Automatic annotation (TrEMBL):
Transmembrane segments: none annotated. The keyword Phosphoprotein applies. Keywords: Hydrolase, Nuclease, Nucleotide-binding, Phosphoprotein, Toxin-antitoxin system. Pfam families: HepT-like (PF01934). GO terms for molecular function: hydrolase activity; nucleotide binding; RNA nuclease activity. It comes from Gandjariella thermophila. InterPro entries: HepT-like, HepT_RNase_toxin. The keyword Hydrolase applies. It comes from the Bacteria. This is DUF86 domain-containing protein. One of its GO terms (cellular component) is toxin-antitoxin complex.
Length: 116
């Protein structure tokens, strides 16, 4: 059985918060720390996958997150086996997730018991 939308939204929140906790302070640190880079890449992949499973009616309801689903999908940062676009990953970590987190929280807070 597929997990319900609120659970997916909580997954997104949890993984964004973890990414924020372990994200290096600079892109140079990200480039030099393979362990952190690999973990952060995986967290972004999980966030994108969870976003893919949020009910479309919820994704389109206010407050909308235009582009959020696509901006965190792994195919935008991975260009092949072991080839991650570090610029794209850094942008997601430092910009997209910071914007996405409060919007996801607002969506989750606004869901009623009769959510899709």
């Amino acid at each position: 059985m597929r997990r319900a939308t609120p659970e997916r939204l909580r997954d997104i929140i949890d993984h964004i918060e973890e990414a924020e906790r372990i994200r290096p302070a600079t892109r140079t640190e990200l480039e030099s720390d393979r362990r952190s880079r690999t973990r952060l890449d995986r967290l972004v992949e999980i966030i994108g996958e969870a976003a893919n499973h949020v009910h479309p009616a919820v994704r389109e309801a206010p407050p909308r997150c235009p582009g959020a689903k696509s901006s965190v999908c792994g195919n935008h940062i991975a260009h092949g086996y072991f080839d991650v676009d570090l610029g794209a990953l850094w942008n997601i970590l430092t910009n997209d997730l910071r914007v996405l987190l409060p919007r996801i929280r607002a969506i989750l807070d606004g869901l009623s018991d009769d959510h899709p």
